[in-house]
Fold:
Amino acid sequence: MLRPTYSSAIRRLGHCALSLLPLVAGCAAQQGVIAGRVVLAPVMRKSMALPRGVERDPRAAVVYLESIPDAQFGRMRMTPGPDAVVIDQRSSGFTPAVAAVPAGGTVVYRNRDRVFHEAFAHAGADSFDTGQYRPGETRSVPVREVARFPVFCALHPDELGVVVVTPNRIMAQPGHDGTFRLPALPFGHYRVHAWHPAYGEIRREVELRDPRGARIELDF
Structure:
């Protein structure tokens, strides 16, 4: 009985790989990206106390999915474990002024100043007080519940930030030009939620059926 040569085995592997390409392409084609732009209106609709400088800044918006349908959730390859966001604390306030993190994640407060700071918030089950922490130190605070709440400094009353805790990791904050891009999603119907501290919130229904993605305008 003749044994296959090394070169014939390689050819067979190549044929197998080629035969799988349509299947791989078909799977990849079942995903797309929801992207778009946040547009802020000329007149603010202030919904809460505002950190300095966010009034006309689209980067202060948070765009996220209200929920992930069970059928889509089972097909998503989500990175396990909680996410974290870092907020720097200086004499000028909190940076970023508005920070987003998924429920189950962690907010890391980092003192990037030359003086002591003490961040705190009254946020129900997620209320916290870091205690005073020196320059260069950090404090990690877990978040459990979907919420939006202001963060203050006990030592500097004029400092104010906002934390937005989203229901899942499918979220984004726009760039300087207002453009945003959510992580890739399986085809399906989604409700996109956007919130800005100076304009309130809006929702959009999105039908994702094209591998090239879906583009939406979020006009506040």
Summary: Confidence is low (pLDDT under 50) at residues 16-29. The radius of gyration is 23 Å. The chain is about 10% helix and 40% strand. The CA atoms of residues 10 and 16 lie 10 Å apart.
